[in-house]
Amino acid sequence: MKIAIASGKGGAGKTSVAAALLQVWDRKKLAVDADVEAPNLHLFLKPENLHEEKVYLPVPVLDPTNCTACGDCRNICQYKAIIKMGQQILIYPEMCHACGACFLICKENCLREGERELGSLLYQTNPIPYLMGRTRIGEAMTPPLLKKMQAKTEEILSALTNDTELNKTDKPNELSSIDKPHGSDTPHTFDDFDTIIDSPPGVSCPAMTVVRESDVLLLVAEPTPFGFYDFKLAHAAFKQLNIPTAVIINKINMQGNEEGDALMHAYCHDSNLRIVGEIPFSEEVARFYAKGMILSELSQEWEDRFKTIALNIQVFIKEEGKLP
Ligand code: SF4
Ligand code: SF4
Q1: pLDDT digits (tens, 9 = 90+) for 300-311
Q2: Do 112 and 196 share a domain, yes or no?
Q3: Closest ligand by atom to 115 CA
Q4: For site-directed labelling of 68, which of 97, 193, 256, 281 has its Cα 20 to 30 A away?
Q5: 177 and 214 co-located in one domain
Q6: What global pTM score does this model have?
Q7: What would the mean pLDDT of 237-262 be, rounded to a whole number?
Q8: What's the domain range around 31?
Q9: Domain shared by 113 and 177, yes or no
Q10: 82 vs 169: CA distance, rounded Å
Q11: Which residue's CA lies nearest to atom 8 of ligand 1?
Q12: Residue 71 in contact with ligand 1 by CB distance below 6 A
């Protein structure tokens, strides 16, 4: 089960919600920070033993020895990564999308495979199963890194599924009535692990790349005028993907914003979007968040609040037929 937590705009509270949900989520889980341009889930969850793996994109490098400057490679490149100046061929690896067409079309075999660093994947399976991606500074293209991250997610889930010791370590809590047995010797299967993904913000390529591969989408929405506008855009974009979608309204009950709250409720009602949680606005929360603390650890009341949201999400997922 892959659960993407997304939002129409940055600052809606997506990461703080993801961190708190991961903290109270009582099923087997893998935390994924896919906000690769500005990952910060690790600041809350504090994974300490991350392995780093660099990710590269194969790009062409020209060996000019036999190049006839025919220009075929330039003509076939849809991304303007190859140009011809007089009789000289120039390659701009930063523009390359690694489609491979230029390699295929060059009759003189003048192009060999080089690489461009996209960024890194950082991960661990113990004690907190965790995966994050981070783009190289200056790298503009994130979907190839996200695709590698999706492959790594499957690899980690497979390792977790086969880790018999890990399968015995979780403790049950009050949400477990809806779950598979915890802390037992019952072997877990691949499907028992929930991947909770802090998605890139907005609705551009990175966010779409992540949400498209998810089973369930949680949209974190802020009932301010800008937040509501971006939330509607996000909903309009993501609903094309036909993924079960629920909403968590963050910063509700802001003084003087009763109309914003009402508009958000009305939109969700009219759009048949289930609201699985409402998080009240509080300056204390903002201060807590700024210190890198997890909201469910603020007090018993906040822990219970997120446990209820987690339960609502699990009920929603079950009703959508995504949980056994
Ligand atoms: S297709 Fe090959 S031979 Fe032609 S310009 Fe490109 S590199 Fe040179
Ligand atoms: S691999 Fe594709 S995108 Fe990259 S330079 Fe060659 S044709 Fe252009």
Answers
A1: 999 999 999 999
A2: no
A3: 2
A4: 97
A5: yes
A6: 0.87
A7: 94
A8: 2-47+162-319
A9: no
A10: 54
A11: 67
A12: yes
